[in-house]
Amino acid sequence: QVQLVESGGGLVQAGGSLGLSCAASGSIFSIGAMGWYRQAPGKQRELVATITSGGSTNYADSVKGRFTISRDNAKNTVALQMSSLKPEDTSVYYCNARHKRYPYDYWGQGTQVTVSS
Questions:
Q1: CB-CB contact of 60 with 82 (8 Å)
Q2: Which of 54, 64, 65, 82 is the most buried (most CB within 10 A)?
Q3: Both ends of the chain: CA-CA distance in Å?
Q4: Quick one: pLDDT at residue 44?
């Protein structure tokens, strides 16, 4: 099993910046790609950004150029730096880790990000 614990998040004004961090523990040797997803009230969970163990990244079109995902394999952490935040970025953000061999996802408990206009 893998445990993911998020930190960061909170309330920020539109145009501001915020950082999220996620620490993985447990069977970390089983982790492949990691990433961030978000879910707003009444909406489906959606991909924000992912990063492989080799550092290849993928971003949702809505956050390209504004968000940056990074990973520290030695510390088993993944971070999301968010800038130029918009009210529509308001969501619960979830850390994700994918099993490197099997189609299985681990999830953090989620952290709220609220962007006020």
A1: no
A2: 82
A3: 40
A4: 97
Cβ count near 13 (within 10 Å): 10
**Distance, CA of 22 to CA of 95 (rounded, Å):** 6
Strands of the sheet containing 67-72, edge to edge, are 2-8, 18-26, 77-82, 67-72
C-alpha 117/C-alpha 112 separation (Å) is 16
Contact 106, 4 (CB under 8 A): yes
What single DSSP character describes residue 55? -
Are 3 and 105 in contact by the 8 Å Cβ rule? The answer is no
Supply the DSSP string of 31-47, one letter for each residue.
EEEEEEEEE-TTS--EE
Give 50-106 pLDDT, tens digit per residue.
999 999 999 999 999 999 999 999 999 999 999 999 999 999 999 999 999 999 999
